[in-house]
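Model the whole thing, not chain by chain.
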Amino acid sequence: MEPVATTFFFYLLSGLAILSGVLVITRKNPVHSALALILTLLCLAGLYLMLYAPFVAGVQIILYVGGIMVLFLFVIMLVNLERSQKEKQFNRQWVAGILAAVALGGLLVAIYTKGSALFVRPELLFPEAENTQQVGQMLYGNYMLPFEIASLLLLVAIIGAVVMAKKRI
Amino acid sequence: MPDFITNYLDKNVQVTPGQYGSPFWALVYILAVFAGVSLAVVCMNWLERKILAHMQVRLGPMRVGPHGLLQPIADAIKLILKEDIIPEGADKFVFWLAPMIILLAVFSVYTVIPFGPTHAITDMNIGILFMLGVSSLGVLGIVMAGWASNSHYPLIGALRSSAQMVSYEVAMGLAVISAILMTSLNAEGTGTLSMIGIVKAQYDQHVWFVFKFFPLGLIAFFIFAVAMVAETNRAPFDLPEAESELTAGFHTEYSGLRWSLFMLGEYAAMIAVSSIAITLWLGGWMRPFPNLLSGPTWDMGFSFFPALTFLGLAGLTFYSTLRMPKHSFFRVQTIGLGAFGAVLALIGLILLVPQVSARIQDIYWFIFKIAIFMYLYIWYRGTFPRYRFDQLMKVGWKILLPMGIGVLMLTGVVALRSELWDFVHEAVRRLGHV
């Protein structure tokens, strides 16, 4: 089936993602921030779907929204919220802030004007229905070594976390 | 009739409305599934109270309608009319959002549940991944409800529930992966994540995955069956709402309609995870022995089951009608029960028509399997005492998780046994040369 109203959904999803991203840093209540972050991640999952990558979208929802954000909320609920309400939310580092904003803005403008020359127009290499199989073949075929190194890194992180959390081993 | 209605009804269309791209029929299916699930939840409510009562040698609801049949309706009216209280100091927006998120997560799952080869709203390439992902969003609703209530018991309930659901999701995922591994054992060697594809793989391999590589499939199914009870916060893993310690857990502060939304979400989630288990291990919509006992005679024999079920229920209803007290006070109830029996009998007779029963077969078997799971849920609740929290964590991380990893690895080894054998053979041969 041909996709419908892709432009509309692109602007809807990216607009929502940006809006909720702004909410993440402006809300005083950390729980509200976390909820806004969840909305951002869900919008990103939607954008992956629009890029014909359903597997990535599904993994995004399972890992980030179902796993990591639940742990975020779990930790936030244990923290004393009243202190964070009183703390200053923004620091006064104007110079660094403006510099970063100008650099980012320049980058965006450059991409907007020169973008079509810089990036190849994306083409659909394989049908959407084969996305999962292709990801699997890439991970366990062409990119076997980087994949295994990444998993080794995660293993080290897990062991490190356990060592640091336990008083006596 | 307009084109967009008749297009899908063509005999050659053998896909779900979502894949065919027919918004109208997708909407019809969505409404049908939505209504069906809500009705099932209502029935479940009555059945659970009745069965639990009989297990504990009580009568259960008896007052509203014959044998308390109208009790769910009375409950619904009560809940709608009740005052909706939001506690002082609660975070109003999050408090309001939490039940919505739970319902949204649960009902989104139903888009990919295959009630038959074409009787699903849609089929996705990432079906099972989508189901696991979206159903894991439900825990967000529970955490939000517990936190927003600004009260101690709900907060403890929410903490327990998030820890519990995150831990059991791991074991559940491993069990699911071992079933998905089994779908790849065909000539092309490519598996599938699509719900319809998984059932078709079981048909092609002539075995339900629960019996495949005995006992590996059975163990994986067992892990999933335990984890799914924990995922839905049901007894014996109902610590998030343990009423003896936490009043009602995460929904203590909810009342009236909002509370009923939580209940609807819980029961709908039970049906959803049961249908995942049925799709992955118990052959989905297939009737028992579709390959072994095939042929027109067996097909006809099994096609009588839906009608027989309804006629049996009708017979039961007529029998209870005769046994109703003869006092004039019960006259309306007796007539009502008789009419209900007549409706059931009428449905049974309609299902005897071959054209109808052929179309309804797969849906019937799927719902039949769901009904068995629902009964098991009630049975667990009536039988097992509640786990302590440390025991719960121990079962999840120290028993189910290692079992899941072991089953996954063994499934891989058994699936590739001929290749492994060749490899060993070759290695030994080469060593012999040296």
